[in-house]
Every structure is written in structure tokens, then in C-alpha cells.
Amino acid sequence: MSVLNFLGAAWSFEPWALIFAAALLASYAALPGFRLNGRSLLFSSGVLLMVLTLVSPLDHLGRNYLFSAHMIQHILLLLVIPLMLISGIPESAADKALRLPLAGAVMRFLGNPVPAWLLGVGSMWVWHMPSLHDIVMKNESLYIAQQICFVLSGFIFWWPVFAPARRARLSPLAATLYLASACLGCSILGMLITFAGAGLYPAYANPTDSAGILSYIRNDLCITPGVDQQIGGLTMWVPGCLIYLAASMATLARWYASPEPGPAGIPAVEGPLAKADSYARD
Amino acid sequence: MSSRIPIVPENTIPLPSLKANNGLLSWVASVDHKQIGIMYLIITLVYFLLGGLEALLIRVQLAHPGNDFLTPETYNQLFTMHGTTMIFFVVMPFLIGVGVYLLPLMIGARDMAFPRLNALSFWLFFFGGILLYYSFFTQSGAPDVGWFAYAPLSEKPFSLNKGPTYWALGLLASGIGSVASGLNNVVTILTMRTPGMTMRRIPLFVWMMLVTSLLLVFVIPIITAAFAMMLLDSLLGATFFTPAHGGSAILWQHFFWGFGHPEVYILILPAFGIISEVIPVFSRKPIYGYEFVAASTVAIGLLSLGVWAHHMFAVGLGNVANAYFSLASMLIAIPTGIKVLNWVATMWGGRINFATPMLFATAFIIEFVIGGLTGVAIASVPIDWVVTDSYFIVAHFHYAIFGGSVFAIFAGVYYWFPKFTGRMLSETLGKWHFWLTVIGFNMTFFIQHFLGVMGMPRRTYTYYDMPYWGSMNLISTIGAMILGLSVIVFVWNILASLRHGKPAGDNPWNAWTLEWATTSPAAVENFELVPPVRGRRPLWDLAYPDMPDEPGAKIV
Amino acid sequence: MANNRMIVGFFIASESIFFLMLILAYVNFHGSVTDGPTAANSLNPVVTGIFSLFLFASSFTIWLAGKSLRNKNHLMLKVWILATIVLGAVFIFGQGLEWSGLIEKNITISRNVFGTTFFTLTGFHGFHVCVGLIMLSLLLGLALAGDFKGPKSDAVECISLYWHFVDGVWVVVFSVIYLWAFL
Ligand code: HEM
Ligand SMILES: [Cu+2]
Questions:
Q1: CATH number of the domain that C171 lies in?
Q2: Which chains lie within 8 Å of chain C at 3 or more CB pairs, if any?
Q3: Has residue B317 been placed in a domain?
Q4: Which domain holds residue B209?
Q5: Could you give the number of structural domains in chain A?
Q6: How many CB pairs under 8 A join A and C?
């Protein structure tokens, strides 16, 4: 099969992905104060990207041919898409939701950084244990569970940093530490995968060439299983980390943009100073 | 309590004299951040002279091809000790020392959060250095395996002498001291700020020290663990890094550079901080884009953790790994470039006063940009494969560390000397020092770019008589002599100004940060009254109550 | 003061990186031993597992000590600190047994990379446990001298934080060395 044919044919509109997407959109529309604006566009593009990740040829590649394609999918589902979803929720909705009894408790739970961090980083580590990964590749329902788990744990992971309600967010410095340590966690895994010998994930060593593109991958693109594994590990490591880094830049930017608490409460003690500065200010 | 016990004398004057009764004891037993800071500066000056002397010997040896001024063994010891000294016992402790002196003053505190821990850090650094230099007096001589101590060269059976062991022990001790300083700085900055000094108002130097200190806390343990493994290899026969017994020499490189690359940012970030203080004051403008300078520091700090393998492009990690690391390394140029733009924008349209601190700061920008540009060039794998292990690399990192960190250090010394001692450094000698440094530095190192591209390898005690190599090396050696001269002028300036320098007054540069609100040298308790902080330039706000930096801060 | 707990927190973070490097070294050489001793053919996970339970239990007792202090129950404070020391000492004793057993079989730090990484990792952990025991003994001495009035004490809180950390490291080390080899 030629590559173009593959790109055209390898779409699999699996019902569960569409149902999951529809469920997300429906619950978004049900948020109090829902309106069509930039934020809802962001949210729906997040959902769209998720659907694409799950049904496009990328999914086919990731499940049958390339560990690196799986990893790109993984980064999208765990880091990028949940971030788009969470940023799509309007602050007013969160405020209103906080007044509902149950939602308030849920949000307080989500806002707790320790479980959120463990879930975010843990879901990378656990799902990449070679034995588990092998099982997942062969078991359809586990695979579905894995994908949904990625999105949900990603959502919970980002919550303490980007929660719609300001009150639920960590302070910027704490958020930076939160993100940097998560980056460390994912780097180490990326490192281990990159520098471990080839063949960590045997499923990709000799794929069944269902779509007939194996020789293109191996011979034209020169992606041997070893190279494939390295690309995968490095994708988790470098671009993965850059996302955390960009996020911590975003928290700092948000911090600097917010107004400084007023000078009230500062004791007006005068120091022993000479008024010497004779230059004008530009 | 019996009065017989020799009690550590209270220091009643800011800097007790050595000649006074108990003078020495009042320094050795001090837990005062200013005294400890000064001790850091004095010791680093001594190491600077030692390291400089070693460099001159190296350059003399290389002055012409086939020279036998030094034996190969001595040469190896000297270039190892030169690199180790300059990085671990000059630039790093100098920056830590300035930080120790200035941090509490800049945030309006009385002292560091943990004064005794502060003293411990200093003494660990002090004795670490002595341990390292003691190796010169042992039978087997100083370490001779480079500041990177690559295995298996640094391991049995290739290094039977004890040099590398002293090296690892000395650096282990001073490294633990650095972690302690890092911890102390972080806690001091986060918890000891005077009211109003919010995290968004702290001077940029403090901000950069915060990021540097976090790097110290998280990065030094990497090399501490590696040193421990190396010592276990050499003392107990462990086999971490000995390929012949199943170990891995590449693992050492990963560990060393996993520390080593963040380390170069530990050397440069506080230097950025110094520059960010000096440039606004001498341009009479607030820093342009405070937020960008601060946030880009965080970005640099985080990025620096993930790019170490650019030191290992020639190892054979595979094309994919090389490509990713190359990309990530180039990304660091972005936040660094942002900073440079901010400094230039601050100078732009300012009323620039080219006093010596500003001269060094301006030269810093130019020299550091050259180092950064060569850095981006060698971050690209094919270029690196051509010039790695050649003098091009030597040129690159000297532009980054000498043209960067050391120029900033000079700027900082001229800027804060009045605060440290109460006297100004001589401007005339300062200008001499500056021009000799600029000429000597560029003469020594610029030409090494060409030598590197022409293929002259680094880390060898001599070289073949290839066309032009001899004369180019001679130029470099002459440049080094000029640099040596400049250091003499510098030391002379310090010694002379200590005695006869113009009295400085509290705020000779009309600067705006809190350290200038106290006496020079800073009073024992730092401040009688801490001025109110309502913006990033408290002393400006105080002098011009009707046009404060932050509009809301007008005093009524 | 919050200072003290903050610096201990950062110190623990720093120490975690140190252990991380030792663990990475262990992981790096896991599986590269072709002949000679390995974790799978020379360690006894059950015995070490049992001794580990003592260490895990000591995390619980130090927590109880802090709780007693908060309730101003000075007697139980001393009892629980003492219990922590005893439990930690039992763990160290177990490690001593394990080491001497291995060394008798000529499995040492210089035998091969397994020996090298195993002894380094467990050795540094044991060293940290010993440091913790010394600090706990000081704490006990101070408690006996009546130093802690409660309900708060930075010394007690910081040392128990450190002790939890030492414990947590062992969870990881035990999983990496023993569980990985035998599961
Ligand atoms: C724009 C940022 C920078 C980039 C992209 C960069 C890139 C590199 C690369 C690729 C090498 C390895 C060359 C080789 O051995 O083949 C290197 C070496 C080095 N760099 Fe940089 N660099 C940058 C900035 C700096 C800074 C700011 C410093 C110090 C303050 C520095 C200090 C060093 C040192 C000391 C070495 C040599 C290490 C050795 O082999 O002994 N670099 N740099
Ligand atoms: Cu580097």
C-alpha cells in the first residue's frame, strides 16, 4: 500500500472515541453560563484534536507499527489535549459550580497537588512498563481504558496549575516547582527508554504488516526498531519537557500580569537617606 | 558562666580589623553574612591568582611548537588544576560570596536565614580547596585528568596516582558546601524579605540567585553521587566506570555533564544578575522588561537541565538523540537572547555613565554574545563533529565564562567595592584594568577559534609545527601575558584603594536597591530602619515620592 | 519557624536527586551481568522484606510521637521516639546480617557491577538510616531532659520529615532491587 493510500484508508472511527468526545462536549455545554466564544472554541478544538488523535492514521501507526507514534499520541492525550480542555472552561462556570455542594468537594479534591502530580506522572510510568504495554497492545478494552485514563489524568494533573477558579491554583513559584518536578519525572522515563537497548517493547520489533507500509518505514524512512524506540523516548523527554516548561512560563506571565497587592499595610518607616538622585527619569 | 572561656568577640564595628585583640578569631568564628561574604571574596581572589598563574604556565608552554618548558605530566596537572580552580574555586564561590554579602541587604533582612549553616558552607569550600591543592605536595602530584575527569582515564589502572582522589574529595566537600549555600539562599529569599518586598519586586540579582540556588540544590547532588561512585571505584575496587570489569565509562560522561551543563548556568546566571543591576543604574533608567529578564531566567534554568548530551555528540549516542539534544541546546539561545535584548534596550536612550562597572558590563554583553553564538554553532552536530576537542571549544567556553562570568564579576567588584569597604576603587586604574583585560582577553582567545578550525587539538601539551600554528599560538600567549598584567593592575587597585581610596559614602552611584540605603561598609545590623518598599526601586521612590515606579505607591 | 521545615523540605529534595543517581546507576547495570551474582540469584527478598517492615513501622511510630507531642503527652512522646529508634536499629541489624551473608559468599562491592551498585545503593541508604538514628537519639535525649513542651516543635517535625524520607527511599530501593528481580 502506498503511503498516500495508507493516510487515506487508515482511519478507524471507533464508536467509543466518538462517544467519549460527545460526552465531553455535552458536559461542557451543560456547564452553568455556557456561551459560544473563544474559550468554547478552544475546548472544542481540544475535543477535535482528541478525536483526531484517536481515529487518524497516527493511531493505526501507534498501535501497529511505531512506538514513537504511540508516544506522540500519548503526549497529545496526556499533556496537550487536557490543557486545551481545561483552558476552555470559563472562570465564571467554575465559580458557579463551586456553589453546588458536590462540585465544590470535587474541585477541592482535584486541587490537591500531591495526588494530581502522582496521577500525572504515574500514568506515564505505569503505562510504559514494558509488560503492561504489551498486554495493552493486545487487549482492545484495556487500550480504550488507557486512552481515556490519559485524558482524565492529564486533566487532573493540570488542574492545580490551570484550574478555572483562581483560588484553586497553586502560587506561581509552587506551580513552577510542581511542573519542574513533573518534568524531571517524565525526563527520567524518557531517558531510560532512550538509552535502554532496543527491543524494550517487543510488539514493535516485528509488526504484522497489515497495511503494507513496513518496508517504507524500515527502508525509506530508515526507522529501525532501535531508532523508533529512541525517537519515542526522546519525544517524551524533550518536547514533553518543553510543554511543562512553557506551562511554567505561562504561570509566571500570569503572575506578572496580575496586579501587585497594594501598598497598604507596609509600615512607612523612613530610612536615613540622602536625597541625592539628581537625574530625571526617562 | 565563667568569664575565662574565650568567648567569640562581639563585632561592634562592621568589619573587625585583624590587628585588633581577637581580630582573627572574630573572623574565623564569624557567622555574620558580611564577614563570611568578604572571606569568600578574599579566598577566591587568592585562587584567581593561583589559577591565573597556572594558565600563564600553560600558555608559555604552548608559545611555540615542540616546546619543552613543561613536561607532559606537569602540563596535564596544570590544565586540570586551572580548569578546576577557576570553575569551582573562583567563579562559583565568588558569586556565592557576593550573594551571601548582598542578598540579606537587598531584601532588607538582618542576616541569612541560617547564619551558622552559612559559615559551614564557607568552611567546606575553604577546606575543599585546601584538600585539592594539597595534592600538589603529595608524591604523585596533582590530578592530571582534566576538570571533567573522564573515565576510564581517571580510574585504575590508568590513574594509579592519588591525584583524582584528592580532586574528587576536595570537590565533594566544597560541593556539599554549595548545596548548603543553595538551601540557605532559597530559604532566605523566600522567607526573610522585608514587608513590601514582594517576589515581583526583588532586585533581579536576587531573582537570579534564587534560580541559581535552586540549581545548586538540585544539580550538585548529581555530581556528589558521581564523586561517591568514583571514590568507591578507586578506593574500594568498585566497578562503576571501568569497562574492563563490566562498568561503563559513558555513564560517567552522562553523570558528569548532567551536572556539568547546569553548572555552567550556575556560573552565568548570577553574572546575569550583576549585569542586570549595573546596567540600569549606569544608564539612569529602570531595567527594561523586568518580567522578561526574570521569567527567562527560570526558562534557562529549566532548559539547562535537559541538554547535557551536547557535550557527548562525538560519543555515538545515535543520530536521533543527537538531533534532539541539538535542538534543545539551540532553544536555550532564545531566553538568553531575550536577556541581551533587554539589557540593550535599557541602555538605549539612557544617560550612560561609562564608569568602570559599566565598561565591564558593556563589554560583557559583547563578549558573551560571541560565546553564545559559537555555542549555538557547536550545538549543531555536524559543526561540533568538526571542532569538538579542538581549540574552538576552548575559545567558546572562555568567551562564555571569562567574557561572561568573569567580566560580570569585575563589573560587580567595581560596583560594590564601595559598599564592601567604604572606599571607591580608583577609576584611573580601573580604566587601565578594563582596557588591558579587553585587549588581552580577545587577543588570547579570539585567535583560538581559528586554531580550532585549523585542527589544533585541546588537552595536549604541545603540537606539531603546522603552517601558522606557531605564530598564532604566540599571539595567544602574548595576549595571556597582557591579561596577567591586567590582573596585577586589578590587585594593585584593590590594595591601594583599600588604604587611600576616595571615601564612598552610602550611595556613591545613586543606585536604587536597598543595599545602598545603609552605611558603607554595611552596618553591623545592616539597617537601623529599613526604607519602605513600594516598588522595584525603593530608593528612587524615597527620593521622588511624587513619581513612584508603581503608580499606586504614592505616599500621601 | 516555617524556615526550618522549608529548608528540610528542600534538603530532602536535594537528597532525592542523590538517591536517584544511585538508583539510575543500579538500573543501568541491571541485566548487564552475564555471569556471577545478581539480585535474582543471591538475595533473599523474604528476609529483607520482613526487616523492611520494621522500617516501615518506624514511620508510623515517629508519626505517633509527633501526635503525642501535639497532645502534650510527654511520656508517649518518649516512648514512641524510643520505639522508632528500636525499629530502625532492627532494620540496620537486618541489613548487617544480609551484608555479612553476602560477603561470606564472596559477593562484595568489587565482585561485579551487581555488587558495586547493590552495596553502594543499600550502603548509602543504610548510612542515612544511621544518621537518622543518631538524630533520633539526640531527640530522645532532649525529650528526656524535658526540652519539648509541645504542642509544636520544629526539631521533632524536621527529624520526622527526614525519617519519613529515609523510609520512602527504602520503598523505592526495595522495589527496584528486590521486587524487580523477583516479580
Ligand atoms: C547559547 C548557549 C550555549 C550553547 C548552545 C553551548 C553549547 C556548547 C556545546 C555544544 C559544547 C560542547 C562542545 C564540545 O565539547 O564538542 C559546549 C562546551 C562548553 N561550554 Fe557551552 N554553550 C552555551 C553557553 C555556554 C555558557 C553560558 C557557558 C559558561 C558560562 C558555557 C561553557 C562551556 C564549557 C565550559 C564547555 C566545555 C566543556 C569541556 O569540554 O571542558 N557554554 N558548549
Ligand atoms: Cu553545555
A1: 1.20.120.80
A2: A, B
A3: yes
A4: 33-553
A5: 1
A6: 4
Q: What percent of chain A has pLDDT over 90?
A: 27
Alpha carbons A104 and A96: distance in angstroms, whole number: 10
Is residue C113 within 8 angstroms of chain B, CB to CB?
yes
CB contact under 8 A, B221 and C17: yes
C-alpha cell at C119: 552495596
pLDDT at A171: 87
Query: For residue range B104-154, what is the model confidence (pLDDT) as tens digits?
Result: 999 999 999 999 999 999 999 999 999 999 999 988 889 999 999 998 888
To the nearest whole percent, how much of chain B has pLDDT over 90? 81
| Centre of ligand 1 from the C-alpha of residue B197, in Å | 36
User: How far away is chain B from the Cα of A74, in angstroms, using its nearest Cα?
Assistant: 18
Query: Buried b / exposed e across B527-550, counting CB within 10 Å, b at 16+?
Result: beebbbbbbbbbbbbbbeeeebbb
What is the mean predicted confidence (pLDDT) over A69-95?
89
Asked if pLDDT for residue B473 goes beyond 70, the answer is yes
Please tell me the pTM assigned to this model.
0.92
Residue of chain C with shortest Cα separation from A195: C28
Per the DSSP assignment, residues forming a β-bridge with B390 are B457
Range of C122's domain? 2-30+44-182
Average pLDDT over residues C64-79: 93
- Domain residues for the domain of A247 are 10-257
Measured CA to CA, the distance from residue A160 to residue A163 in angstroms comes to: 6
Domain tally, chain C? 1
For A196-227, the DSSP string reads SPS-SSGGGTS---TTS-HHIIIIIS---HHH
Q: How far apart are CA A191 and CA B361, in angstroms?
A: 39
Q: Is residue C120 part of a domain?
A: yes
- What's chain A's length in residues? 282
Q: How far apart are CA B553 and CA A264, in angstroms?
A: 9
> ipTM for the complex?
0.95
> Closest by alpha carbon to B182, among C7, C134, C53?
C7
What is the residue whose three cell numbers read 534554568?
Answer: B301
- Residue recorded with cell 604556565: B57
Band (B493; pLDDT cuts 50, 70, 90): very high
Mean model confidence pLDDT for chain B: 92
DSSP codes, A56-105? SHHHHHHHHT-HHHHHHHHHIIIIIHHHHHHHHS-HHHHHHHHHSHHHHH
Inform me whether the pLDDT recorded for A268 exceeds 70.
no
B523 φψ region: left (φ > 0), alpha (ψ -120 to 50), beta (else): beta
Rounded-to-10 torsion of CA C55, C57, C61, C63: 90
CB < 8 Å from A in window 21-40 of C: 24, 27-28
